Amino acid sequence: MKNLIVCILTFMFCIASFSQDKNIETESIALDDLIAFIIEHYSVSSDSTETKNVTFLIETYKDNFNAEDSVILKQAFKLLSKRLSEKDLVSIVAYSKYSGVILNQANGSDIKKFLYAIENPKSSIKTFEEDGIELAYKFANENFVEDSENSVVMIRIPNKDKEVIKTDTSENVDKNSKNKSNVVVLTAIALLPELISVIKD
Length: 201
What we know:
With 201 residues, the chain is an alpha/beta fold. Helix content is 48%, strand content 20%. The chain has a five-stranded mixed β-sheet, sandwiched between helices. Helix 1 (2-18) packs parallel to helix 5, helix 2 packs parallel to helix 3 (67-83) and helix 3 packs antiparallel against helix 4 (111-119).
């Protein structure tokens, strides 16, 4: 909890520091809400002609994402690639255990680059930095695109490995957490038929 508060305060400080002269929108969401967030914010039926320049700031707690987190991230970015165009830009920055730029401004429909970045987050970073949150805002500021919707989306991922260690005496807790994850995925699929085709890809 203390680490979460520190991250949020740092995030807010960076917002104030780096968004003063440029209009950079900010969002902070939990991983389990990512698919719903994409459905809500990147609509295929939108009449807006404004291009998007999105920097995703993803929390890390070990070298690679665990299987469950990786599945959610992959499905979310597959969906995102179907809702953005080649004119849109997507970047991915890591923060927490290690910090750095995982993906540098790929076009919005380049699913291969998205998936590679998710499968190889640490090895995709060329230069490691001390503060990923500050880095994300510097990066967004330096790569600001005029007449585009510029944003930083912070994705918080709970350290599920530690949670399992704390509760490994109760198999029911582990099963309940898996059931909740399944409900999240099933709910997302129910929200939008196109998710089914995304999962099949």
